[in-house]
Amino acid sequence: xxxxxxxxxxxxxxxxxxxxxxxxxxxxxxxxxxxxxxxxxxxxxxxxxxxxxxxxxxxxxxxxxxxxxxxxxxxxxxxxxxxxxxxxxxxxxxxxxxxxxxxxxxxxxxxxxxxxxxxxxxxxxxxxxxxxxxxxxxxxxxxxxxxxxxxxxxxxxxxxxxxxxxxxxxxxxxxxxxxxxxxxxxxxxxxxxxxxxxxxxxxxxxxxxxxxxxxxxxxxxxxxxxxxxxxxxxxxxxxxxxxxxxxxxxxxxxxxxxxxxxxxxxxxxxxxxxxxxxxxxxxxxxxxxxxxxxxxxxxxxxxxxxxxxxxxxxxxxxxxxxxxxxxxxxxxxxxxxxxxxxxxxxxxxxxxxxxxxxxxxxxxxxxxxxxxxxxxxxxxxxxxxxxxxxxxxxxxxxxxxxxxxxxxxxxxxxxxxxxxxxxxxxxxxxxxxxxxxxxxxxxxxxxxxxxxxxxxxxxxxxxxxxxxxxxxxxxxxxxxxxxxxxxxxxxxxxxxxxxxxxxxxxxxxxxxxxxxxxxxxxxxxxxxxxxxxxxxxxxxxxxxxxxxxxxxxxxxxxxxxxxxxxxxxxxxxxxxxxx
Amino acid sequence: xxxxxxxxxxxxxxxxxxxxxxxxxxxxxxxxxxxxxxxxxxxxxxxxxxxxxxxxxxxxxxxxxxxxxxxxxxxxxxxxxxxxxxxxxxxxxxxxxxxxxxxxxxxxxxxxxxxxxxxxxxxxxxxxxxxxxxxxxxxxxxxxxxxxxxxxxxxxxxxxxxxxxxxxxxxxxxxxxxxxxxxxxxxxxxxxxxxxxxxxxxxxxxxxxxxxxxxxxxxxxxxxxxxxxxxxxxxxxxxxxxxxxxxxxxxxxxxxxxxxxxxxxxxxxxxxxxxxxxxxxxxxxxxxxxxxxxxxxxxxxxxxxxxxxxxxxxxxxxxxxxxxxxxxxxxxxxxxxxxxxxxxxxxxxxxxxxxx
Lengths: 579, 356
Description:
The structure holds 2 protein chains of 2 kinds.
Chain A: H1 8-50, E1 53-54, E2 57-58, H2 61-68, H3 70-103, H4 109-121, H5 124-134, H6 140-147, H7 160-185, H8 188-196, H9 201-230, H10 233-239, H11 247-257, H12 262-291, H13 309-337, H14 355-363, H15 366-398, H16 402-416, H17 419-431, H18 445-470, H19 473-481, H20 486-514, H21 518-523, H22 531-540, H23 544-575
Antiparallel strand pairs in A: 1-2
Chain B: E1 2-11, E2 14-24, E3 29-33, H1 40-48, E4 55-60, E5 63-66, E6 79-82, H2 94-104, H3 113-126, H4 142-154, E7 160-164, H5 172-189, E8 192-197, H6 200-206, E9 209-214, E10 217-222, H7 224-229, H8 234-239, E11 244-251, E12 254-257, H9 272-277, E13 279-282, E14 287-291, E15 297-306, E16 310-317, E17 320-327, E18 338-343, H10 351-354
Parallel strand pairs in B: 3-8, 3-9, 6-7, 7-8
Antiparallel strand pairs in B: 1-2, 1-4, 4-5, 9-10, 11-12, 11-13, 14-18, 15-16, 15-18, 16-17
Helix pairs in contact in B: 2-3, 2-4, 4-5
């Protein structure tokens, strides 16, 4: 055996670079945490600060002013009613679906799952648009109702009930996502042990399954709660025409209303909303800590409840009807109605035309430039998040100490905050990053870019972190004992293994940034409109036919992107990972 | 030669290793044996360089590998490693697994492509995988995966080969076969091997020298036969030899069990540390059962387990419970039978073996 020992001098050099690295490690850590603090946490602190300050002195004036107005309390009341109602709806639908999919023998579960996720990947303002078409005078619901005897009319979506319905339907996939694996991970032996101890199926469900699933259900419910609180598109599209305000739309109105103290009043409202949201986040964090006990269990997706053939068919049929009616039909209606020449005319062959598409893509210049803006923003946001977020996830995975945990917590804040609040934070932070110095970031596309990176960063960190968790640490250790370090190790071993997981995180970032409405509705400026802003603008101006045409193109694009992603993932698994 | 000098490792307030000293000679095959949590995996990770010691130093042939201040990372050490879960890369073929360290290891092949291919073929042949060169891990059986993991580790001819319970993921039949395979590789590569295991049978069968660890400390370092027949601590006696620790008094003539002073047992090679404590470690197969009327310590059989090649008796002796293994050809007893227990007259261990 021939072994070459490194020369003594060479070794000394190498050793000194190591010790230098260890000394510098703490320095890097502090610089990193400082950057994270400035980009993720400081904007929030400045918003809170501004709600207390007038002309450089601390004051309660804005709080007493805003809290003294009956309009504020009416808005808070609306918010609480709508959030409570839609959270209950999302919970009931989400838990019901996850329990059925996890436990009951059904065919076509994979396809069902895709349809459950559909309202989740389509932005909620487009879903709302589709539903308003679905229920409109020329939509299918009214057509069916007019066939029936009596003078039935489609319910009015522009109401508190309508907002609750759409929030619930848009957010039950989140509850489903959180609970389906919790149900699958409850060991069936526990139910069998309950049965041999003499409990009936119903009592076993109540005494064993439900308590074990409760942490998952609760955290799913809290995510739905936060999303309902945060949502801007649905109450803006449905509530504004009916004069129903919730906190997120009220803040928006304050900011675009440009009153003398608009920003400070919006800051006060944001603090109220932020406090409600953060309370939920903290509660969820505690619940997730407790539910970790379950994570070591194996996920068991074979069915536990077998129905008779007839009952199974009936259940499948009713689930499919629900899924098609809630997710696909409104989109198809929207697509169809985008083809009619004018709003309100009946849907028949003479009235079909591509006039709306012609206007949106040829006559009006805004949609195309918005499409370009959003695609660029989404792409570069994805790129930055992909590289830095994956690096952050690696640090978090490799060195799970207080600093990386704190960093992750900071990064969660911009995403957990309601979009209107976060947008306001961005304005306060980047209008004058250092008091007295305006670098001209606000009012350009750059503030949107910074905001998107800060807001969606944590999605990539989580996605990549999950990907790291799924590969055995010995994969990397084997690479190192084989002599591979640095870039070689990443290129040859880690990246090929991580690719599907990292890609799904990146795609989520891309999709969220592409169809984002809330943040951009406050941060856009002339020339930096986004897709969401243009559709919102059409809708506010009453051009429903244009917004449906634009949305239809967008939905088709998203669906094609989704299909592409799934086939790339499958191809990668088969060709590269040889699964 | 690898020298582990006074090495300690703390995780926060928990001490995983307490001042370990160990020398691994060139070409030596060492098994590190101990129950889970004894620190054997920590020791292996320190040798590999995945982490650094809190105190002490590790050196290889006078090159410092690790101290509390600096750690030479694994990719710069002249080592190979076999992992418990094999750690094969799903996106690489068998040949690519072998090529990988040949391209990046400190001992990488610096000559041309031809030499590289020759070496790959040589290693494939050595582990008997010539026909599988282009297969992916998902297309291999458990034993074949193990061979790939071994091939990848030995390909660059490392000075030190580390093995982290490499056989525990295999079924019993395959494990026996792979033991021979590893012995063969050791003979042919002449690398020093550190083989971590919790299976005392595996350690006894395979190693030149066994390091028994418990609670972060080394209990005893000895060749297998010495370790088995002359344990020096209670832990080694019970963990390796499954000994009954019989209490009594050591006198000039021999050992007098406390339970029945009419008996005197001869010294069959008991370590001094036991003599000071008044303990005789007796392995289950050293006992002999006779009918109760015969001489010997009296006891009652409480359980009988038939094992095919021998019979395991559990015998209540006063307050104590002894485990006794008897040949299937000896006379049989039933639970509840009164028995006499005496020591088989095994010869005293040869000096030559001890000083080997």
